[in-house]
Amino acid sequence: MSEYILELQHIVKRYPGVLALNDVSLKIKKGQILGLIGENGAGKSTLIKTCSGAVIPTSGKIIVNGKEFTHMSPQLARENGIAIIYQEFNNIKGLSAAENLFLGNPIRKGIVVDKKAMEEEAKKAFDQLNIKIDPKELCGNLSVGYQQMIEIAKAIRLNAKILIMDEPSAPLTSKEVESMIAVCEILKSQGVAIIYISHRLEEIFRLSSEIVVLRDGEYIKTLVTKDSNVDELIQLMVGRQLKESYPQRKINTISDETILKIENLCGNGDKNVNLELKKGEVLGIGGLVGAGRTELAQMIFGAVKKESGTISLYGKEINPKCPKDAIELGIALVPEDRKRHGAILHNSINHNINMPIYDHFSTLSKINEKKEKEITLKQVDDLIIKTPTINQIVKNLSGGNQQKVILGKWLAANSQLIILDEPTRGIDVGAKFEIYKIINKLVENGKTVILISSEMEELIGMSDRIIVFAEGEITGELKKNEFSQNAIMALASNC
Ligand SMILES: Nc1ncnc2c1ncn2[C@@H]1O[C@H](COP(=O)(O)OP(=O)(O)OP(=O)(O)O)[C@@H](O)[C@H]1O
Ligand SMILES: [Mg+2]
Fold it and tell me: Does residue 360 register a pLDDT over 60?
């Protein structure tokens, strides 16, 4: 019997025009946490989907507990103890935590569902992972972090011995990430093998004993975590050295002219927001998830109506009633929830990127295809969107590349004020740097940027000034010489 619980051998996956995986192998032992890293589009999600049966490999072998398969199916995966935690959970919000845990497989007394028994069993399952969830609580009332934990508990209850997590920390707050890491540690001690995909390298270093690096669908190397470091990982991932984390702006871009002034703004959960923004400035907005930052952006963008107060652009009060009004005023918002508000997944990259600007250079009857193509190619180039052609359907791109398309769409719109809500979530280190360079280019060209981010390092690296939100209010403002993670944290927790 092999000492490995799971082995992938020489996996190849070919799509029309894309060799997503080219001879990739990895192996993992019982009770081991294996990090899986690579740039956007490197093939991480495709690789792990071969283990769940969601992707059928073109060739290669999957060996689970010594049993050999050419491909899996969802049922085979379950029978062989493989579970995947995807970013979109399958929880039903109107059902309780316990009901979700037993979804599709309830405990019955005769023919009736035994709610009480399920609640008791759920409590045991949660206790075992040290998760503090009331089994009776409706899933819709639970935070994303807890919903994810229900998914993990569900997998374990179905006897998963190999748990695969695809960017589990992306939607979580830093506190939730800590709880999730604690759950991973417990599972590891129980002998569960975990494959952990993340763009946050510090998590990979904390959790894993070995790290597999993919690049462009190729297997690059397996590293022993304790003998490696961030620089080496980045070098292997992107195939070159990244010297600095944040590019410097060449000139002072901030002018005396006020572009945006917000006075006593209330609505959408925000209270009495006052702020002024100079043309050419990068204003960072920090705070915990749910502190009111996205809510402010939505009001400026006309996506949600304000209740009272004023928003002025270049000294003139504006009242955008819908995003279209805001776009016409020269305001763009790259939303945080890109799946819901961002791209039309079934349309091409070309179509998505040109969507907000069709009015500018095409009449309804005649679309200027040449111009359209030019604009798309520039964004694909600038943002390093990995795709065989600009006509590729967005749904077929990797997660990170889908996000770049949405970013490209707003950058192409040539707006004056660009609000970026968590622009680098799910984006690999190399592309992050490109996005930072684009932010610099924007302000160097006289545009103004509001950068909402939960990554404090990113706020500190990129902003000219940072304001912090807590519970719908601005709790403070930091100038460049006052920037520190502690200062942001203190304002974010309002103490
Ligand atoms: N159904 C599909 N049709 C065509 N190409 C696809 C399909 N699914 C994935 N690809 C391509 O396969 C490659 C690998 O994608 P994958 O989603 O595995 O990347 P990833 O490493 O998970 O990236 P990310 O970090 O952005 O999530 C990409 O070039 C992607 O566009
Ligand atoms: Mg992916």
Answer: no
- Best mutation site among 55, 396, 407 for ligand 1, i.e. most ligand atoms within 8 A of its Cβ? 396
Chain-centre distance of CA 448, in angstroms?
A: 24
Question: What are 206-221's pLDDT values in tens digits?
Answer: 999 999 999 989 999 9
405 lines ligand 1 (CB under 6 A): no
Domains of the chain listed by start with CATH number: 4-238 (3.40.50.300), 258-492 (3.40.50.300)
Read off the pTM. 0.79
Residue 392: the pLDDT is: 95
Cα 336 to ligand 1 centre (Å): 21
* Mean pLDDT, range 393-403, rounded to an integer: 88
Mean pLDDT of the chain: 90
In sequence order, which ranges of 42-110 are alpha helices (DSSP H)?
A: 44-52, 74-79, 97-101
| Strand order through the sheet with 210-215 | 67-69, 59-64, 4-15, 18-29, 218-224, 210-215, 33-37, 193-197, 162-166, 82-85
Grouping H, G, I as helix, E, B as strand and the rest as coil, residue 29 is: strand
